[in-house]
Amino acid sequence: MKKIIHKADSRGYANHEWLQANHSFSFAGYHDPSKINFGALRVLNDDVIAPKMGFGTHPHDNMEIITIPLKGELKHRDSMHNSWESVFPGEVQVMSAGTGIQHSEINGSHKAHLSLFQIWVIPNQQNVEPRYDQKAFDEEDRQNKLQALVTSMGDVTEGVLKIHQDAKISRIDLTEDQSYQYEIKSKNHGVYVMVVFGKTVIENEILETRDAIGISETPSFSIKAIDNTSILFIEVPMQF
After folding, report:
1. Whole-number pLDDT of residue 82
2. 62, 64, 136, 145, 153 from 129: Cα distances, Å
3. Residue 115: which of 26, 232, 234, 21 has the closest Cα?
4. How far apart are CA 20 and CA 124, in angstroms?
5. This prediction's pTM
6. For residues 89 and 138, is the Cβ–Cβ distance under 8 A?
């Protein structure tokens, strides 16, 4: 088993006043040569956006972009004719940038801050037709069991969002003292595990809110919640 520990306070941080951004991997003005990517996972940003503020229109291409709101209201529009779609906690948004898109993301509230994860996964196909999708997921369906959110286009799992990569994004909410054994898809896959909140032991490593561990070169790994804990899993090919 190979493990990489990323403590919450080791992440890159940028204070733009309207945006408080934590970067698990090199992004924008933050560069750490030891944190360029984890396999096909290129970006995991943990952002807090002030009321009425956000990212103006900007381009992307050849990237799978997944956004998970944690608190507040995200509003999104893009060059695919999506005009100010709202995305709330409990929902997940995916966007295949493919041949190229323009989009904007703002905090839809005039009073409350917006908190979200944004994930970039390197695709296994270049220059696909851009696409957008979003879906609501029931929080009860991840109580002490794994809830798949995003899988690959070729995966047969129903009721999930799809991206152009042999990846899987999922969540679990464990109650205190509950355990879970995560099974990894193949020898070429690894899992980047982010503790959304709580305190847990993952393969003898104690992790707390926003700590992360990358695990590869093993068929499975064990988790035990010390407190009530919410965990995000990003499983990706390590060679792609």
Report:
1. 78
2. 10, 12, 24, 34, 13
3. 21
4. 31
5. 0.98
6. no
For the chain, which residues score pLDDT lower than 50?
A: none
Q: What span, in angstroms and rounded, lies between the C-alpha atoms of 101 and 62?
A: 9
8 A C-beta contact, residue 148 and residue 107: no
- Among 142, 145, 89, which residue's Cα sits nearest to residue 117? 89
Look up residue 154 and give its DSSP letter: T
Domains annotated on the chain, with CATH: 2-124+137-237 (2.60.120.10)
User: Which residue shows structure tokens 């979003």?
Assistant: 134
Q: Starting from the edge strand earliest in sequence, which strands make up the sheet with 229-237, in order?
A: 2-6, 212-216, 189-197, 229-237, 168-174, 147-152, 161-163
Dihedral over alpha carbons 83, 84, 85, 87 (to 10 degrees): 160
**Residues in CB range of 94: below 8 A, 6 or more apart:** 64, 65, 66, 67, 132, 133, 134, 150, 161, 162, 163
Give residue 81's pLDDT: 77
| Amino acid of residue 87 | V
Report CA torsion sign: 52, 43, 23, 172.
positive
User: Going by C-beta distance under 8 Å and a sequence separation of 6 or more, which residues neighbour residue 186?
Assistant: none
**What are the CA-CA distances from residue 41 to residues 6, 121, 132, 179, 237 (Å)?**
14, 5, 19, 26, 8
